[in-house]
Design goal:
Number of helices: 24
Number of strands: 19
Number of domains: 3
Helix content: 40-55%
Largest sheet: 8 strands, antiparallel
Distance between the termini: 62 Å
Structural class: alpha+beta
Strand order of the largest sheet: 12-11-10-6-5-17-18-19
Amino acid sequence: MEDLKNDSGLQERWELACARIRQIAEDPEISGEFGKYFKSAADFLMLMMEVWEKAEKRWTESASLEALEEWNLRLYGDLLGENYKKSYANPAFAAEKLGAEYGRILSFVSAELRSMIVYAYEQRAEEMLICMELFLQLHAEFDGGEIPEAERLRDDVYWFVSDYSEITVAGRVQEQIDPELSFARDIIMEADLSDPRYLYRFGEYISDTERKMSRFLAGLPQEEIDRIASVFTEGYRRGFVAAGKPLDKKKTVNIRYSVGFERIIRQAVNNFKDMGLESIIYRAAVSRVNMREANKIGYYSSSPNRQYDYDHKGDAALFLDKAFAERKLGVLRTAYERQKDLAAVHGGPAVMEIFGETPFEPEACPAAWKLNDKQQEVQVYLNSRMGQIANEYIKGEERSFTIIAFPVPDIGSQFEEIFKETVKINTLDYQTYQRIQQKLIDALDQGTSVRILGKGKNRTDLTVALWPLQDPDTETDFENCVADVNIPVGEVFTSPRLTGTDGTLHVTGVYLNGLYYRDLCMTFRDGMVKDYSCRNYEDEEENRRYIRENVLYHHDTLPLGEFAVGTNTTAYVTAKKYGIEAKMPILIAEKMGPHFAVGDTCYSWEEDVVTYNPDGKKIIAKENERSAVRREDVEQAYFNCHTDITIPYDEIQEIAVIHEDGSRTPLIYDGRFVLPGTEELNDPFA
């Protein structure tokens, strides 16, 4: 709002844009289907002007709950349920009404204009205005009723994304590291969290999930809230201590969470303040230029339509080329350079994930944008360079993180019981696990490789090569994970040696990053993905595209960056008890059996930081043959992705350590721990 008051030029553009949009809303001046599109878009922009005025007057702080609910439905109603089938934000509908090329472009615009909801709530005038001007530019192309070439519209969008990246990309950097941008934090710390009206102040879609979650937490005693928040924040602190990184050099922490958990987050903010850290709470990106496909990084609420999210995850195909990539990288570096002092004292993220949402299996949408082969190469290059720039200013060897997960009411009628069980899982005695896991590590360190065999319908037959220890008395390959950065407890993990890592990894069904995979199968040769398949779609090419986009992230191949043995049988049995195995987040699921990560190792960007296990042994398996090339060519070393794939205990025939002489030491047989000293892990199965 201050931008409009203090910038006469901006205010003049604002007034002209608003006046012209009102005219188009009354008369789109274009006949046929394109006229209907621009009429619909102008009506939406009129709604956004109304949002702006309400936010300016702080209407959400005084309105009734009924009025807020009605208003929220007005903002997001066109994406809900059957409405989406007739929304121009649906690429299939837009293509049907406007033609394939025009439909794809203008559906992108409809999705981009939806970011104005956030800009209006946060009173971000410049971002609001450039969206209005994009709409007007496209409308002007139809001057005189003539239909322009689709390529002209595409050029308009391209230059909108490119030219205004100094606003959108630079703004994204600032909101990630500047504690002065406190829109969400102010709501969390100042609102009456027992009054559900506060939920509508964020500008996010508010569903029953957020309402029920907030109401549930409002009913918990403060002691329980304190305990949950303490586990979360202490995990962050211990991460710095365990890695020997000085927390006292950091001044900010980024909290990422889902709307509805504000009562816990408020206490976490206070806990971090006691550590000398100010909390930064930024929203998941809303502009396509800052999105990384369908991944949400920041705070967010339930999606009004997950198919909509999936349909637009490839929208970068409209504008992504090498010139744009270089433009974005230049803006990114300049933005970090301007904010380098803030970046230097940023400690990294504290993430509170959720699980239990209704399982989602996306439908293929032929009309949606998809990256072509050349664009996939550019995207891989862009992600790599962005990671390098961020790491240059927020150094990997100096930052840490923590991550924890809790269920939401969508998980079913036993939600409250499951929530309590999850708190129990997240607070298991780490010393017991540390002791038992050391037995596993001692056995693993005596081998040259590990053989993993599936049973029943699981076709896994994979050999994972281990790095040789030069001094077994002081070195180890596996980290003893005891719930600091990665909550809950329950795994030992390593960065495998790629050479000699061969075979097939198979899971009969698994959710990865919110998407379901049927019969996911990956073949490895010398640690690199050689082939892959699943059975989500009848068309095999569509199956391969699904994996390439959402697991390989457009890379031709990825290394096996991690191998781990999960030991949290308590979590596994709990999941079986409530029938929620498929809904468990990877954070907990990875502890419920052996898991394998494709992509970077767990130590990317901090391979040279010396790390020790609780027994004093130095962890030497912190890189592989690909990450080792960082000294010569950093772009070839990192892939900027890491996706964990877990095989449940009941699909495991055997996990055995293979020794140099060919002998074997079984760790797990027929889904149960058999290594002497680890039998206690089988107790929950009884």
